[in-house]
Amino acid sequence: MIGDAVRRVEDRRFLTGSGNFVADLSFPGELHCVIVRSPHAHARVLSISYPKDEGLIFFSGRDMAADGVGPMRCGWELKGMVEPPRWALARGTVRHVGEPVAAVFAASRALAEDAADQVIVEYEPLELIKDDVCFHWTRGDRAAVEEAFSKRNRKVEIELVNNRLCGAAIETRGVLSTGDTLYCGTQAPHHIRRYVCEELGIDEGSLRVVSPDVGGGFGYKGKHYPEETLLVWAARRLRRPVKWIAGRGESFLSDTQGRGHVTRAELAIDEQGRFLALKVQTIADIGAYVSTFGAAIPGPIYTALLAGVYRTPAVFVEVKGVFSNTLPTDAYRGAGRPEACYVLERLADKAARELGIDRAEIRRRNLIPKEAMPYKTPIGPTYDCGDFPKILERALILSKYKSTKKSGNLLRGTGIACYVESSGVAPSKLAGMMGARGGFYESAQVRVAPDSSVTAYLGTHNHGQGHETSYAQILADCFGISIQNIRIVEGDTGSVPVGTGTFGSRSIAVGGSALFNACAKIIGKGKHIAAHLLEASPQDMEFSGGEFRVTGTDRKVTFAQVAGAAYVPHNYPLDRLEPGLDENAFYDPSNFAFSNGAHVCEVEVDAETGEVRIVSYVAVDDIGRVINPMIVEGQIHGGLAQGIGQALAERTAYDSGGQLLSASFMDYAIPRASDLPMFVSELDETQPCTHNPLGAKGCGESGAIGAPAAVVSALLDALAPLGVTEFDMPATPHRVWQAIMRRRGEAPR
Question: In what helix (H) or strand (E) does residue 105 lie, and over which residues does it extend?
Answer without folding.
Answer: strand 100-106
